[in-house]
Amino acid sequence: MGTISSKNNNSNHKKDNYRKIKMNTSKLIEKNIILKAEQELLTAMKNCDVKKLDELLHDELLFNIPNGQTITKVMDLETYHSGNMNINEIEASEQKINLIGDNAIVSVIIVMKGFFFDYPLDGKYKFIRIWKICNNQWKVIGGSSIKIEENNS
């Protein structure tokens, strides 16, 4: 029977620890990139920055808005371009990010005030967004939002 030296075990253990640290560091860096992209998205929404939104949204985007309608990137950009989306205040909280391969799933609560056509936006909304790396850039490929009803009790 052969014996395994403790030197080899220690070397393998150090390599495993290095891989875990490198992987965790990489995930932290990616999460920070997603946090920055999320902030850029909110700023672009507030400022009706169609050019920036065009950069951040994937051409095949599908997004469910609170009224149940599914919109595309073209529809979303047109809404901002036409002035039918007007956001006065927007703030994110309770953000959670899961990285899965080359995708990031973001769950976030957004407090928003403004108008979507004649529909007032005033309250808390729960968003889920799916980001994907496309040509070395994170882009939103899908998502959904619902209004969170305030409990008045």
Biggest sheet strand order reads: 2-1-6-5-4-3
Percent of residues in helices? 25-40%
Strand content: over 45%
Instruction: Report mean pLDDT, rounded to a whole number.
Output: 87
User: What pattern of helices and strands is seen along the backbone?
Assistant: HHEEHEEEE
Backbone shape: globular
**Broad structural category:** alpha+beta
Report, as a whole number of angstroms, the end-to-end distance: 72 Å
Write down how many β-strands occur, each being a DSSP E stretch of 2 or more residues: 6
This entry's quaternary arrangement is: single chain
Which regions have little confidence, pLDDT < 50, spanning 5+ residues?
A: none
Largest sheet: 6 strands, mixed
Rg, alpha carbons? 21 Å
Number of helices in the DSSP assignment:
3
Description:
The protein has 153 residues and is α+β, with helices and mostly antiparallel strands. It is built from three helices and six strands, in the order H-H-E-E-H-E-E-E-E. It has a six-stranded mixed sheet with strand order 2-1-6-5-4-3. Strand 4 and strand 5 (119-134) form a beta hairpin. The protein is globular and about 65 Å long.
